[in-house]
């Protein structure tokens, strides 16, 4: 119920459309009942007049029938138009609202969710919420109003008629939907979960199809998806069965109501309290009135499904972001001086420290390298600096002020990153590059790509910069994609450039040349450089180097100082050189 009220609050901006849709649905229903009732009266009255050989005014009822028929058709058209317009507006509003809720959760909070699951929530779960207005709110409001009108009309003729109608409407409109809700709720919830699992598994398997084929695991994964699909079909079948029962029950109630009218009204006709044509009118009136409650069983049967979808959406939307933004953020200074002071960090509250007592400085125009074995915490440092996460203890300062006092998004406008997992979008190379600086001209694109040694490749393509990158850059080699990412980061012209293993996937000569170009560029632009790597070429050009091991800085100095110290760095350096030499031979 709480979820339902919360949803209705989100629908508030569209209440005008929603009310208009309800009004049209009500008018359509009334027109239909009027049409049936007047037709019953008219046919009987005409037949009786014919038998008696008397004339009667048939213009008024014929006009009324025409009016009701036109009102029913026009009303139905208008109702469909307005209710669907309202639904689509609501859904698009909900999607934007949900996306805005998701954005601050990325990347830290969303790591636990599979991309297929997120996609499922954004698309299928939000689509399910159209049930709330279209299949729940409109039918319930219309049914309540209509029941009131029907009972009052019948009361006017005889209270017993009203009682019969009311009782059967309650059975059809309250008891049957309540039973459907009881029997259908858990299956509905299972359906949402199974459908989401199936979508997640499908996205996951499609993304990893290459690996599944190489390791011969495709059949096992296909069997899992088949099983989910069979489960879903069984759940859908159960829901359809329930729907059939409900429709049958409603049909029975409608017919019982018609018979009930006849049973009560025939004595009234005999007593002269009702005219014979009114008998046919009341019977058809009662039969048609059940249209008001027809959608209710389905509405309540799918309520469990709808609420399960709402809960899945709210559970994500309510998650607090990993990093809270300040209410009154400080303006980001022109020159950026980052300082880590005794920073400890762990990913899970109950986990072990990934960073331990880290203190370092990244002043403006400084070139700092962080080196260390894989898993030693280098990339985690970058993620803290980007304000994607916050230290558990200690602090990170920007120009002497705690980093929490700056808005993360504004801060990141001053930082460019080449991350380890480069993501290219399924669009042209130009669009992928312009992501960093949408107003960049061709000259700027050429210069950045020349620096990253990718310009020649792009120019050799028939479509040049308009070459399609493919999904996640599949139409490029790993090294080409990496260099596009480097060009993109250079193009941004940010005050700080973070390079996380920027030359991974490049051959040693290209790697050295790209690194040299980046250093020259950073020096010329007075850009700070934070280079994260476990490959040791080009480090002599760095102003300072920190060596990390198991989350701690174990050595610091310049390349020459660290070599002279003959410690960890020197050992890494020797093994690094050996590696390069082996590759060359
Ligand atoms: N999102 C995460 N959730 C939980 N633990 C994580 C997460 N990311 C990294 N870790 C853990 O934190 C530690 C440091 O990881 P980090 O990526 O910072 O290392 P790294 O030095 O950059 O390694 P590499 O050179 O392989 O990139 C590792 O033990 C890793 O398993």
Automatic annotation (TrEMBL):
Main localization category: membrane
Domain ABC transporter residues, every copy: 340-575
Listed CDD domains: ABC_6TM_CydC (cd18585)
Residue span(s) of domain ABC transmembrane type-1: 19-305
Gene3D superfamilies: ABC transporter type 1, transmembrane domain, P-loop containing nucleotide triphosphate hydrolases
Transmembrane segments: 16-35, 41-59, 132-157, 163-181, 248-269, 281-303
Name of the molecule in the record: Thiol reductant ABC exporter subunit CydC
Species this chain originates from: Thiothrix litoralis
